[in-house]
Design goal:
Strand content: 25-35%
Radius of gyration: 19 Å
Order of helices and strands: EEHEHHEHHEHEEHEEEEEEEEEEEEEE
Low-confidence stretches: none
CATH class of the largest domain: Alpha Beta
Number of helices: 7
CATH architecture of the largest domain: 3-Layer(aba) Sandwich
Largest sheet: 6 strands, mixed
Number of strands: 21
Mean pLDDT: 97
Distance between the termini: 32 Å
Helix content: 10-25%
Length: about 325
């Protein structure tokens, strides 16, 4: 059976904690939350029944809960990941990391305790690096961090985290069947017609050509659009949900990076409207054709002075919550 990692940038460094697991398939993407992990796990090259996933999005989710997402939204998405793992028969071992700001404060954020409770509800053992460092040292020194959101990459810090993960790998379990606290229905991907492939050193992602017009089947909620976001392209996506002639939700979302890199981004649609759909509703997407203010996730530009027509595809997926 195969071993996978889904997490943030702390999981991507070649000399980070994941170096202790050289045989793992790393699906991690920085500056994201569990939404991106869900997307990676639902792709055809993701884990299969019996495989093990190390989850490491706690640090990122604490950062997102400061100002961008509600804690309830983050926990709902995390619970969807656990329910998906149970449905697909994936084993899960959570690794909990904490940003420097919260680690050095007197009070841990509510998300930290709520996430641990959620893992407990689903019968999972957690590798809690924060707790282990505090138990052993009496507190986590600021020097254990290379910067506010990345641990120091040496044997004393990331090496210790990696050894703890390696030690507890046999404790990975398929999440138990439990009464959901926040999640409703089953998480799924809308199948798109792929046009091109985006590939770099850490991922290979199929992309769809836009514009896209989808007649929704069944009932549910669109939770996320996933896109390749590039620097310098100055572009965004206009997403609209309509029922006959009535517009139910309408948003302009940035897919332009603020810094000089290209990233995969799972955008949380909860922040820009109610995307509940019924059978026959139309979900449509196109590139925006005018600059101005757009909704921007972490690391993306919130104001576009002008826009361009992209020469490359950007849309990678649509995550929906399906209801019976």
């Amino acid at each position: 059976m195969a071993l996978f990692i889904v997490g943030g940038s702390n999981s991507l460094f070649r000399d980070g904690w994941a170096a202790k697991l050289p045989g793992a398939r790393n699906l991690s993407v920085g500056a994201n939350t569990t939404l991106c992990g869900i997307f990676r796990c639902l792709l055809d090259d993701g884990p299969k029944s019996g495989d093990t996933i190390i989850w490491e999005y706690g640090l990122n989710e604490i950062v997102h809960s400061r100002m961008l997402y509600t804690t309830e939204t983050i926990l709902r998405n995390l619970e969807h990941f656990l329910i998906l793992a149970r449905r697909k028969r994936f084993k899960v071992l959570p690794l909990m990391l904490v940003p420097r700001k919260e680690e050095l404060s007197d009070v841990m954020p509510g998300y930290y305790f709520d996430a641990l409770d959620l893992f407990k509800q689903y019968g999972l053992t957690v590798v809690d690096a924060s707790y282990e460092f505090r138990r052993r040292l009496g507190g986590v020194p600021s020097s254990y961090y290379a910067d506010p959101v990345h641990y120091r990459r040496d044997d004393d810090v990331c090496g210790e985290i990696g050894r703890a993960v390696e030690k507890f790998l046999p404790e990975a379990r398929i999440p138990l069947s439990a009464q959901p606290k926040l999640a409703n229905g089953n998480i799924d991907l809308v199948r798109l017609r792929w046009s091109t492939i985006f590939e770099n050193s850490i991922m290979k992602i199929p992309l769809a050509e836009m514009p896209v017009r989808i007649r929704m089947d069944g009932y549910g909620v669109a939770r996320s659009i996933v896109a390749i976001c590039r620097n310098g392209d100055s572009s965004g996506i206009r997403i609209r949900l309509t029922r006959r002639s009535t517009v139910l939700a309408d948003a302009r979302v940035s897919i332009t990076c603020r810094n000089d890199k290209t990233i995969l981004k799972a955008v949380n649609l909860d922040n820009v409207g109610n995307w509940s759909f019924c059978e026959g509703d139309i979900l449509s997407m196109r590139y925006i054709n005018a600059g101005g203010v757009v909704y921007a996730e972490q690391g993306l530009s919130a104001r576009l002075r002008s826009v361009i027509t992209l020469a490359e595809d950007a849309l990678a997926g649509i995550i929906v919550e399906r209801h019976e």
